[in-house]
Amino acid sequence: MSSSQLDSELISVSLTPLIHLFQHHCITSPKCQCGKSDETTEHYLLKCEQYKSERTNMLQAISCLSLEQVLPSNPLSSSDNTLCTLLLTGSPSLPLSTNCQIFDIMFNFITKTGRFA
Fold first, then answer.
1. Is the pTM value of this prediction over 0.85?
2. Predicted confidence pLDDT, tens digits, the chain (117 residues)
3. What is the DSSP string of the chain?
């Protein structure tokens, strides 16, 4: 396993939204702290209003990368699932350096939100 794959695995393990903890009977409610939705990975990364500023910065950084092979020119016009997958695991279609940049952008987003601190 490459360093980039290991880093992606660590991000995926670290991102344990409340919905997963609820499904494993570790908590009594899957609701996000915002109260608007269950906390899924998609909600946390792309929709939760609590992290709007951090998400805007993340998506601006992502849109500066050369991702034409895997996303349309505007990342927000891609499906939420496609964008979440790219953010969490990168893509084998992209160079290692680009996947590392995606990892750094995601790590910065997670750090700035403080959600998983």
1. no
2. 455 444 444 444 445 566 566 666 676 777 888 989 888 888 899 999 999 999 999 999 998 888 887 876 666 666 777 888 889 888 999 999 999 999 999 989 989 998 876
3. --HHHHHHHHHHHH---HHHHHHTTSSS--B-TTSSSB--HHIIIII-GGGHHHHHHHHHHHHTS--TTTS-SSGGGS-HHHHHHHHHH--TTS-HHHHHHHHHHHHHHHHHH-TT-
